[in-house]
């Protein structure tokens, strides 16, 4: 929740900020204004839930601000904090929706009690608004779905004469319609927090946005759900094309006021109807999904030259080995480091599109399935990400731009979720330790490191080292050294082989190092061993 504190005295604003129990009340953002005019600008920009205001201020007083709020933002909760115990002030506050009137100097108990009442009241009214909206959806459910299906068919290229005449009659399309413009918005490009607020009721979010769109389109167009897409809303506009962008701006403002979210639109202006309508829709949709989520622009058009210049996309799957080893380590630090490395790579990009974010989601799902396939194991991730009713929620913020924190946190959570089942799966397959031992016996002549073994068996170095020592009582390096020295001892019985040749044959290109390892294990040098064990 958000709060705006309005007072011309800075020390009063600071005192309120310190006295209020913001976290306990569930208030995340506190803004300040020094008078009513500044407050109006902040309120329009940030859409707070609660306003705390003084009464006497320069330029625009608290009384004037209360009047403006009651007329323009009646859902906002207001609390007056004043140094004047004046009946007219109190009466004005009550008449214009003020919930409480607190006298200065402000006491913590009175302030927090008033804030608590305001928060509870706002939440209760919000729940009621959602309930009523759901009720309206239930009453009008069938007709909108029928309309959505008809218009989705129109976008797919259905253009028979009888079909078009039916649309014109049933939906009141203008007679003789020759052209129209198309815009596309996507509910699936909204943020996690909004989905949580609506308890993942995607239909309700669609309903709210469609109501705003159609209220402002009126007789100049129609908005509907594209039923064959990933949560898209399509707007057809048959008014003058030069008016469409301004209208989309008004629609965006309406959505911002209602949902406190910025919505992005893909746009294709004035195409012939109905022939070019499917192509116009595809163009607008592509512009929306290929937009740069690092760019704050709200309206997007398809630019062919930019599409051609786009290089090879960054692949999450290219980092599969690092991510899998991090998950297998079970270490939060290793998981965080792997996620930070990925984010550092993404930050090198000039553009990150919603389409690319979707691709990374799909790559993650593929990797996770591959990792857990042998163990036939599921995790908590399944329930969250495979709902038939919900699109994949992208790591975007309230402005529809890429949220770096969400992108990193999402990857860390996914790795943490898959860590336990992946580790259990490998723990149940103890034979992999024997496979590693067999591999060392077969490849002792080659240069083999712990990292090589970890990469080959898709396990973390720490996990392999720990499990191998538990099984064999020695480290992998010591085990490999014993294999090599045992082979060398057999070869030393052949007097025709020089020691330097034997060293190379068992995996030691450096003869001096071979001699040191041999003496450490056997207690004698290779030459001494040969003298002691050579017959004749």
UniProtKB/TrEMBL annotation:
<feature type="modified residue" description="4-aspartylphosphate">
    <location>
        <position position="54"/>
    </location>
</feature>
<dbReference type="Pfam" id="PF00072">
    <property type="entry name" value="Response_reg"/>
</dbReference>
<keyword id="KW-0804">Transcription</keyword>
<dbReference type="InterPro" id="IPR001789">
    <property type="entry name" value="Sig_transdc_resp-reg_receiver"/>
</dbReference>
<dbReference type="InterPro" id="IPR018062">
    <property type="entry name" value="HTH_AraC-typ_CS"/>
</dbReference>
<feature type="domain" description="HTH araC/xylS-type">
    <location>
        <begin position="434"/>
        <end position="532"/>
    </location>
</feature>
<keyword id="KW-0597">Phosphoprotein</keyword>
<dbReference type="GO" id="GO:0043565">
    <property type="term" value="F:sequence-specific DNA binding"/>
</dbReference>
<dbReference type="GO" id="GO:0005737">
    <property type="term" value="C:cytoplasm"/>
</dbReference>
<dbReference type="InterPro" id="IPR011006">
    <property type="entry name" value="CheY-like_superfamily"/>
</dbReference>
<dbReference type="InterPro" id="IPR020449">
    <property type="entry name" value="Tscrpt_reg_AraC-type_HTH"/>
</dbReference>
<protein>
    <submittedName>
        <fullName>Response regulator</fullName>
    </submittedName>
</protein>
<keyword id="KW-0902">Two-component regulatory system</keyword>
<keyword id="KW-0238">DNA-binding</keyword>
<dbReference type="GO" id="GO:0003700">
    <property type="term" value="F:DNA-binding transcription factor activity"/>
</dbReference>
<keyword id="KW-0963">Cytoplasm</keyword>
<dbReference type="InterPro" id="IPR018060">
    <property type="entry name" value="HTH_AraC"/>
</dbReference>
<dbReference type="GO" id="GO:0000160">
    <property type="term" value="P:phosphorelay signal transduction system"/>
</dbReference>
<dbReference type="InterPro" id="IPR051552">
    <property type="entry name" value="HptR"/>
</dbReference>
<dbReference type="InterPro" id="IPR009057">
    <property type="entry name" value="Homeodomain-like_sf"/>
</dbReference>
<keyword id="KW-0805">Transcription regulation</keyword>
<feature type="domain" description="Response regulatory">
    <location>
        <begin position="2"/>
        <end position="119"/>
    </location>
</feature>
<dbReference type="Pfam" id="PF12833">
    <property type="entry name" value="HTH_18"/>
</dbReference>
């Amino acid at each position: 929740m958000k709060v705006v504190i309005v007072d011309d005295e800075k020390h009063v604003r600071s005192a309120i900020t310190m006295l209020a129990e913001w976290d306990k009340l569930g208030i995340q953002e506190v803004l300040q204004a020094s008078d009513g005019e500044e407050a109006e600008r902040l309120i329009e920009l940030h859409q707070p839930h609660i306003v705390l205001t003084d009464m006497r201020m320069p330029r625009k007083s608290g009384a004037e601000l209360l009047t403006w709020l009651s007329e323009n933002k009646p859902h906002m909760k207001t609390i007056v904090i004043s140094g004047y115990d004046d009946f007219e002030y109190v009466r004005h506050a009550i008449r214009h929706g003020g919930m409480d009137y607190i006298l200065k100097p402000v006491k913590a108990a009175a302030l927090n009690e008033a804030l608590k009442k305001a928060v509870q009241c706002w939440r209760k009214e919000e729940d009621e608004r959602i309930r009523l909206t759901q009720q309206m959806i239930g009453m009008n459910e069938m007709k909108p779905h029928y309309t959505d299906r008809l218009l989705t068919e129109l976008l797919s290229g259905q253009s028979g004469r009888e079909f078009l005449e039916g649309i014109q009659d049933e939906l009141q399309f203008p007679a003789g319609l020759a052209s129209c413009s198309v815009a596309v918005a996507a509910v699936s490009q909204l943020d996690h927090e909004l989905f949580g607020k609506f308890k993942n009721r995607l239909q309700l979010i669609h309903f709210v946005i469609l109501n705003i769109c159609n209220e402002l389109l009126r007789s100049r167009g129609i908005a509907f759900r594209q039923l064959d897409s990933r949560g898209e809303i399509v707007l057809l506009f048959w008014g003058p094309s030069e008016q469409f962008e301004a209208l989309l701006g008004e629609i965006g403002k309406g959505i911002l006021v209602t949902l406190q979210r910025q919505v992005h639109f893909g746009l294709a202006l004035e195409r012939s109807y109905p022939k070019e309508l499917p192509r116009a829709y595809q163009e607008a949709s592509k512009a929306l999904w290929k937009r740069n989520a690092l760019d704050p622009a709200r309206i997007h058009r398809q630019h062919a030259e930019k599409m051609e210049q786009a290089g090879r996309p960054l692949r999450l799957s290219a980092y599969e080995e690092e991510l899998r080893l991090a998950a297998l380590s079970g270490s939060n630090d290793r998981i965080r480091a792997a996620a930070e490395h990925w984010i550092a790579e993404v930050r090198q990009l000039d553009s990150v599109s919603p389409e690319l974010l979707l691709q990374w989601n799909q790559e993650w799902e593929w990797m996770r399935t591959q990792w857990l396939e042998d163990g036939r194991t599921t995790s908590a991730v399944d329930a969250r990400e495979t709902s038939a009713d919900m699109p994949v929620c992208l790591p975007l913020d309230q402005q529809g731009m890429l949220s770096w924190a969400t992108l990193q946190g999402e990857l860390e959570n996914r790795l943490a979720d898959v860590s336990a089942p992946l580790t259990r799966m490998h723990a149940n397959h103890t034979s992999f330790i024997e496979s590693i031992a067999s591999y060392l016996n077969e490849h002792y002549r080659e240069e083999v490191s712990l990292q090589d073994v970890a990469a080959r068996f898709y396990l973390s170095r720490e996990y392999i080292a720990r499990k191998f020592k538990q099984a064999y009582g020695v480290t992998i390096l010591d085990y490999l050294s014993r294999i090599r020295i045992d082979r060398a001892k057999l070869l030393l019985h052949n007097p025709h082989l020089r020691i330097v040749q034997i060293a190379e044959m068992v995996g030691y290109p450096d003869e001096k190092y071979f001699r040191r390892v041999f003496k450490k294990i056997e207690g004698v040098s290779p030459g001494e061993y040969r003298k002691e064990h050579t017959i004749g």
